[in-house]
Amino acid sequence: MIRLRFSEPDLPRPFRAPFNVSIRGRSVPVPAILGTVLALAIWVVSLVTHPGARYAGPIWLALGAAVYIGVRRRRRPLEDEFSRTLPPGADFRRILVPMKLGNVGEEMAATAIALAKERGASVDAVYVIRVPLELELDAELVDQEEQAAASLVEAEQLGEENGVAVNPVTVRSRSIGQAIVAEAARRESDLIVLGSAARWRRQSAFFSPTVDFVLRNAPCEVLVVAFPQGVLEETPGSTLNP
């Protein structure tokens, strides 16, 4: 819950925990903070006071980690999972790809660059820093600026490796979706590349609010890759932009 307040600030939240505090411009519920601290404390106390838990607990965690690593290593490469091709009639010279942290964001940057290389197009890599309403648009957001810089550097390096011109752009906005649409219009983009994690299809809406807004308001074509269940499943710590 704490990480989601930072990584997915645009998620619909019809129910909110009481007693929130502001941390780095985000409203974080006190019960989540206390719950984290108490859960860790109880776990430590259990390991210290109960011989069974002292050995069974770490062994169980180690087994879980081993299973996770094994599953991840057996996963097929992303290039085998998805096709980065468009219909023969599709023509574009400028692609806009919103940057984000996590596997989906990395895959979307790679998809945009692969398509640009195939069609001789350029890529505008846009990282939208969402500024909370309680802060000024030009407020100091050091962590977000560092994340934006790191994400855009990776996109530039990937572009250089593939001979594709990548133009890094950082934008501040109250709404990620509105910022993407505005940048696409300002840069006269021919295509916007977005990714959509499977977890949204388990909710009431097929796409996230950001992707839905872009689809409804984009001034150009939009390519949305909807990842299958269990493939590149987003974690709370990988934020969206889309």
Instruction: Give the name of the CATH architecture of the largest domain.
Output: 3-Layer(aba) Sandwich
Rounded radius of gyration (Å): 21 Å
Average pLDDT, all residues: 79
Low-confidence stretches: 76-83, 234-242
The overall strand count is: 7
* Classification by helices and strands: alpha/beta
Shape: globular
How many domain regions?
2
Strands of the widest sheet, in order across it, are 5-4-3-6-7
Query: CATH topology of the largest domain, anyone?
Result: Rossmann fold
Structure description:
By secondary structure, the chain is of the alpha/beta class. The protein has 2 domains: 1-74, no CATH class; 78-226, Rossmann fold (3-Layer(aba) Sandwich), CATH 3.40.50. The protein has 8 helices and 7 strands. The protein has helices at 2-7, 30-49, 51-74, 78-81, 103-119, 142-161, 176-186, 209-217, and strands spanning 20-23, 26-29, 94-98, 122-130, 166-173, 191-196, 221-226. The longest helix has 24 residues, at 51-74. The chain is globular, with a radius of gyration of 21 Å. The two termini are 19 Å apart. The relative contact order is 0.15.
Topology:
Layout: H1 2-7, E1 20-23, E2 26-29, H2 30-49, H3 51-74, H4 78-81, E3 94-98, H5 103-119, E4 122-130, H6 142-161, E5 166-173, H7 176-186, E6 191-196, H8 209-217, E7 221-226
Helix pairs in contact: 2-3, 7-8
Any descriptors?
two-stranded antiparallel ribbon, five-stranded parallel β-sheet, Rossmann fold, alpha/beta, 46% helix, single chain, 2 domains, 242 residues
